[in-house]
Amino acid sequence: MDAKAELSAALYKVSPDKAAEIQKILSGYVITWASDNGRNDILKHISHFLTAKKIDGLSIRSLNNYQYNLKLFAGHMDKSIVKISTDDIREYIGYLFDERNLKDSSVQTHINVLRSFFCWLNTEGIIRKNPMAKIKSLRVDKKGARHALTTEELERLRDACTTYREKALVEFLVSSGCRLSEIAGIKLAAIDWQNRSVVVHGKGDKDRIVYFSIRARLMTEAYIEERKGGEALFCSTKTPYPAIQPRAIQRALQIIGERAGLERKVHPHLLRHTFATHALNAGMDITV
After folding, report:
1. Region(s) of the chain under CATH 1.10.443.10
2. Cβ atoms within 10 A of the Cβ of 107, count?
3. Is the pLDDT confidence value at 139 over 80?
4. CB atoms within 10 A of CB 171
5. Which has the higher per-residue pLDDT, 106 or 8?
6. Pick from 73, 51, 81: which is nearest to 63 by CA?
7. Cα angle at 147 between 146 and 148, to 5 degrees?
8. CA gap 255, 40 in Å, rounded
9. How far apart are CA 159 and CA 256, in angstroms?
10. CATH superfamily, with its number, for domain 34-140
């Protein structure tokens, strides 16, 4: 039952002899739950915030992440944006830990997004007091979280690959140092197989040349030979074989890592960090 119908029913019980009059009076009003109004208010400001960030040049991937985190927050709030307090934020952070079982690094990402959002609201004059002002950052072990894969871990990851696509993906990422957005955008026609190189479009809307190993070339050629079609380097297995989405790449690496029995989550940036660490140890200049 919607808010208006429930209010009508409650009023009918109090004054059953005035049902027609009540109905006539309420017919001219739009009535919603207070929690719906509060949530809609938050969603409206989230939309405006994301528009501002888009104008500032934030990448599509970052905008999508902001949107996901903020909509999760909005779904947990039942009040308007101006009434949200520091205690509400603390309660939400507790929810992320206790009910969603997020790790410290993931919760810190949510805190960072909320801090940016409420700072913008404060700057725009939408709120007078920033509820994030007293929320401190978590002590996240960034060094440990981004520690490169050891040679043994990398071999275990390779051994856990069951298809040429998985093998090509791991080898290409760990030998080229490509970012997630870069590898998702590579076209087959752009690859220089002789020099084992390709121009990628990446961070800051800039192009750069990356090089890949002989092993990556062999695994990639085997993958291309067995697949049915597609113009992208890594593409979907379903017709019309579009480029594989970044989220699918992340999920594929996570599955391989779990299959390998690695204790930490395997993701594209970890392989990029592994590439950089091994390259530096070999004396390579990795400035990009």
Report:
1. 145-281
2. 17
3. no
4. 23
5. 106
6. 51
7. 110
8. 37
9. 9
10. Tyrosine recombinase, N-terminal domain (1.10.150.130)
